[in-house]
Design goal:
Elements lengths: L2 E5 L2 E4 L4 E8 L8 E6 L6 E6 L6 E3 L7 E6 L4 E6 L8 E7 L9 E3 L2 E3 L1 E2 L3 E6 L1
Parallel strand pairs: 2-13
Antiparallel strand pairs: 1-3, 3-8, 4-5, 4-9, 5-6, 7-8, 9-12, 9-13, 10-11
């Protein structure tokens, strides 16, 4: 059973950094596309970035390009999102995502990958 648990969110001042973690269980994260999404109050969910299967590259939204880095630790079955130079507009709930092949939940595409399972999220609040 696919399961994702995010952590690492918090409150930071503009210009600060955070590293979010996503621990996967029930599947091998390195064999899946793993993505990060975020949703701010009153706004639609948006893709932040994707790391491809086996760590074969990453892709990022223009809004975070140059400030975000996604990486994975296969031994820990964990994916990370490092966010630097945080801005007030980065304030949102951040979600880790993957594809659950057994789920019939609507599929969302980002970075040529498909996603239909999200963790519970971790809140990031940036004060200016």
């Amino acid at each position: 059973q696919v399961h994702l648990v995010e952590s690492g969110g918090g409150s930071v001042q503009a210009g600060g950094s955070l590293r979010l973690s996503c621990v996967a269980s029930g599947f091998t994260a390195a064999r899946n596309c793993m993505g990060w999404f975020r949703q701010a109050p009153g706004k639609e969910r948006e893709g932040v970035g994707t790391i491809y299967i086996g760590g074969a590259g990453t892709v990022y939204a223009d809004s975070v390009k140059g400030r975000a880095t996604i990486s994975r630790d296969a031994a820990k079955n964990t994916v990370y999102l490092q966010m630097n130079s945080l801005k007030a507009e980065d304030t949102a709930m951040y979600y880790c995502a993957t594809l659950d092949p057994l789920s019939t939940t609507h599929v969302v595409y980002f970075g040529d990958c498909r996603y239909n399972y999200w963790g519970q999220g971790t809140q990031v609040t940036v004060s200016s």
